[in-house]
Amino acid sequence: MNVGDEFGLAGRIMLVVDTALADDAKEACGELAAALAERTGVPVTMAEVPIDHLDRLRPALTGSDDTRIRECTPPPREAQPATMSGAPFLWRDDGRPDWARMWTAFCDLALYGGPPHRGPETPIRAPKGDDEVESDVEMIAEMRRGIWETTGLYAEPSAPGWLAVTCESVKMAAWLCAAIILENVDARLEDDRLLVPAGPGYQLKDEVKSIITVVAKTHHYWQAHLTGGRSGAGEGE
Questions:
Q1: Confidence of residue 114 (pLDDT cuts 50, 70, 90)
Q2: pLDDT per position as a tens digit, 121-135
Q3: Helix (H, G, I), strand (E, B) or coil at 23
Q4: For the whole prediction, is pTM greater than 0.70?
Q5: At 27, is the secondary structure helix, strand, or coil?
């Protein structure tokens, strides 16, 4: 609103916001006021006023035939899915999973506001210390192969119930570990090795696929967005 001479603020633009507005919304309004001042070349005042005061002022503001008030409402936001949708399972001619072709695109990491790979009701937790049952050898081999095909990273069995993925640096392993935990999958750090669960009873289309997915997904972000694609690993979901 451009306030006239009778208020002693000739030539100014005043942005009035409710005092009860959230702090981040007020911050956005402050940024808008600064942008308006730069764009228009005139001073802009931002006033925080209780909503009941604004309601009492409304008749005075709208009483003139020259008054024009325009209200803008935010566009509806698309609801984020509770979890990331799963990629279709693809098979090679020899009957083994085709991990390298199973993912062609990546959704945002939970770290950046995307849906986590696993829901909070179906997380993948590492086996407990008193549950050291040997993991299935074929399952471990498939996890190692899937991680290699989607990232180019070498993985090997570690402590009972864990698979260790050798990373290019301690920093890389730590970042992947933190990002994977936010996908509702347990992870640990051991120097430059990322440890992911490899518990007994894991199923190929459930836990095994999820472990390979989160390693591939976080590795893709590390390679493409944090290191500028300098490493030589492959694609993933």
A1: confident
A2: 899 988 776 555 677
A3: helix
A4: no
A5: helix
Helices (H), the chain: 23-40, 51-62, 99-102, 137-151, 170-181, 209-221
**Looking at domain 99-226, which of 3.90.1150.10, 3.30.420.10, 3.90.1300.10, 3.10.20.30 is its CATH number?**
3.90.1150.10
Give dist(CA 115, CA 131) in Å, integer.
30
The DSSP secondary-structure symbol of 4 reads -
Q: H-type helices in 89-161, by residue range?
A: 99-102, 137-151
Helix, strand and coil content of the chain, in percent to the nearest 5, comes to 40, 15, 45
**Residue 31: exposure state from Cβ atoms within 10 A (0-12, 13-18, ≥19):** exposed
Predicted pLDDT of residue 155: 95
CB 165 within 8 A of CB 185: no
Non-local (6+) Cβ contacts of 151 within 8 A are 165, 215, 216, 219, 233, 234, 236
**For residue 3, is it left (φ>0), alpha (ψ between -120 and 50) or beta?**
beta
